[in-house]
Amino acid sequence: MSSACIHGLKPNECYLCTQSTLPRGGGMPQFTTQAGQIGGNPTLEIFVNGQSWGVTYSYDEHFRFGVKKARLILLFSDLIEKFVETGGIRPSFGNPIRRTDLNNSPCSCATFPNFTYSNGQTINSPYMQLRSGTVAIGFGLQKAEALIDVLNNIKEFA
């Protein structure tokens, strides 16, 4: 029997396992969505097991975004899926992939081997960032997995 967590690390050394309230070793979360509004703008929020993202994953209170970010997610959904399937290895780090959206605006997708929270803590886990002009959304593997799981809801929202 392996002593590695589901992320391939020792469970007590894995940031994701020590921060999650999900059962260690693989309790599969159930992702759902709910449309709402912030400041009169439509938003889509992703829930984990029927609760706000922050109840399960303490590093982010909510996982929600508006229509522009939803469209970015759809534009790069194939790469997000590849990101999840390969555990963050693909697309390769440091090589942004560029596409244009329906308005012919330039958009990019880039991946990185790690990321830093707003509190300055560096997390050694793959990270993906989607960008179109000043609009950007970034996420690690857990959020990427959630995005793929609720992709049909995102399509309806966008």
Task: Give a quick summary of the entry.
The protein contains six helices and ten strands; from the N terminus they run αβββαβααββββββαα.
Low-confidence stretches: 20-25
Q: Any idea what the radius of gyration is?
A: 16 Å
Number of contiguous helices: 6
Q: How many strand segments? A: 10
Q: Estimate percent helicity.
A: 25-40%
Structure, explained:
The chain is of the alpha+beta class. The protein has one domain (about 15-155). Helix content is about 25%, strand content about 30%. It has helices at about 15-20, 55, 65-75, 75-85, 140-150, 150-155, and strands at about 30-40, 40-50, 50, 65, 95-100, 105-110, 115, 120-125, 125-130, 135-140. The strands form three sheets. Strands 1, 2, 3 and 4 form a four-stranded antiparallel beta sheet that branches. The chain has a four-stranded antiparallel beta sheet with strand order 5-6-9-10. The longest helix is centred in the middle third of the chain and has 9 residues, at about 65-75.
Question: Tags for this entry?
Answer:
alpha+beta, 158 residues, 27% helix, 4-stranded antiparallel β-sheet
